[in-house]
Amino acid sequence: MKPNIKPAITTIKGLCAPMMINDIDTDIIIPAQHLTQTSKTGYGQHAFARLKQADVDFVLNQPQYQNAKVLITGDNFGCGSSREHAVWAIQELGFAAIIAPSFADIFSNNARKNGLVLIEQSIDICQQLAELNKFTPQTIEIDLLYSHAKTAQLHFDFMLNPFFQYCITQGHSELDYLMSHQAATVQHKKQSINRQLFINYPQQLGTSS
């Protein structure tokens, strides 16, 4: 089975939106009452609804950030329930990457499955990025092949999950890549079982110990 080839993404280039709030959970990203769709679309219009309604000056209410592609945010982003809809909502807003000091584990897994790039970076770098983009969004260029990002004022390296990095830069989904190696995986498993049998039961297999 060949992988389902998707457009390879090696570079993300676009405007930043600063949202330096810690512990943004998935219910804040997409409230439960909006989880009514049967597809992956229709969630973006409800993303961060509570924050938008609570503060007219909230970053995503500002017209200059409407086309941002990279979200700069606080620690423990995506905590809370495991809803995959949170990733879909963020992507439907137009974000291709999020930079934060840390991400919740389940959110990270859902992001990788859907091709949303998560970059863990120090609090200092995140705060610098947020400050640079506080009033006017700046362009950031993220090189996924060489794990390097830069703005006009700031350069930094980062690390991605190696398997995710390979898949997104080659245009593979994780599932399709694994399925394409199914035969080799089955063969490897058989060989491993045979080796273990030989170690544990050499006499029964016709070899003296």
Automatic annotation (TrEMBL):
Annotated InterPro entries: 3-IsopropMal_deHydase_ssu, Aconitase/3IPM_dehydase_swvl, AconitaseA/IPMdHydase_ssu_swvl, IPMI_Swivel, LeuD
Enzyme class comes to lyase
Q: What does this protein do?
A: Catalyzes the isomerization between 2-isopropylmalate and 3-isopropylmalate, via the formation of 2-isopropylmaleate.
Aconitase A/isopropylmalate dehydratase small subunit swivel domain ranges (all copies): 9-121
Q: Name the GO cellular-component terms.
A: 3-isopropylmalate dehydratase complex
Q: Does the keyword Isomerase apply?
A: no
Which pathway, per its entry?
A: Amino-acid biosynthesis; L-leucine biosynthesis; L-leucine from 3-methyl-2-oxobutanoate: step 2/4
- UniProtKB keywords: Amino-acid biosynthesis, Branched-chain amino acid biosynthesis, Leucine biosynthesis, Lyase
| Reactions accelerated catalytically | (2R,3S)-3-isopropylmalate = (2S)-2-isopropylmalate
EC number(s) recorded for this UniProt protein: 4.2.1.33
Residues annotated as signal peptide: none
Q: What family name appears in the similarity comment?
A: Belongs to the LeuD family. LeuD type 1 subfamily.
Which protein are we looking at? 3-isopropylmalate dehydratase
Q: How does it assemble?
A: Heterodimer of LeuC and LeuD.
**GO molecular function term, any single one:** 3-isopropylmalate dehydratase activity
A single BP term in Gene Ontology:
L-leucine biosynthetic process
